[in-house]
Amino acid sequence: MVEGMIEIEVVYAAVDRQVLLTLTVPVGTSVRAALLGSALVGEFPELDLANCPVGIFGKVVADPERRPVQAGDRIEIYRPLLADPKEVRRLRAAKAAEAKARNQ
């Protein structure tokens, strides 16, 4: 590896496929700059990489424009939720209670 360069990963999971890319970027590259420099721009044109929420190893990055990546970081791009998890659990519990009541 060239002095001053680090290796990171960028991952994105679309509904139908997942992509994991390994990138070599200069030390000091911001999270957002690493995303914009990745090949994901061409693979997922619907992604707004300049504004999408991101995290590193499952922890949301509050300011990706200022947060520099570190060697070995895995940048994750988050999609918006299709349904509220609390609402889904509530509906599942109500359905289970209804099924239990019918079987008694």
Topology:
Elements: E1 5-13, E2 18-26, H1 31-36, H2 40-43, E3 54-56, E4 59-60, E5 74-77, H3 85-103
Parallel strand pairs: 1-5
Antiparallel strand pairs: 1-2, 3-4, 3-5
Would you kindly provide a written description of the structure presented here, covering whatever features stand out?
It is a single chain. The protein is α+β, with helices and mostly antiparallel strands and 104 residues long. It has one domain (5-103): Ubiquitin-like (UB roll), CATH 3.10.20.30. The chain contains 3 helices and 5 strands. It has helices at residues 31-36, 40-43, 85-103, and strands spanning 5-13, 18-26, 54-56, 59-60, 74-77. It has a 5-stranded mixed β-sheet. A hairpin with a 2-residue loop joins strand 3 and strand 4 (59-60). The chain is elongated and about 70 Å long. The model has no long low-confidence stretch (mean pLDDT 89). This is UPF0125 protein ACJ8NA_24385. InterPro entries: Mopterin_synth/thiamin_S_b, RnfH, RnfH_sf. Belongs to the UPF0125 (RnfH) family.
Task: Compute the number of structural domains.
Answer: 1
Question: Which architecture does the CATH hierarchy give at level 2?
Answer: Roll
Identify the CATH homologous superfamily: Beta-grasp domain
Question: Termini separation (Å)?
Answer: 67 Å
CATH class: Alpha Beta
Morphology call:
elongated
Structural category = alpha+beta
Mean pLDDT: 89
Rg for CA atoms: 19 Å
Count of DSSP E strands? 5
CATH topology: Ubiquitin-like (UB roll)
Q: What is the element string, with H for helices and E for strands?
A: EEHHEEEH
Residue runs with pLDDT of under 50 for 5 or more positions: none
- The number of helical elements comes to 3
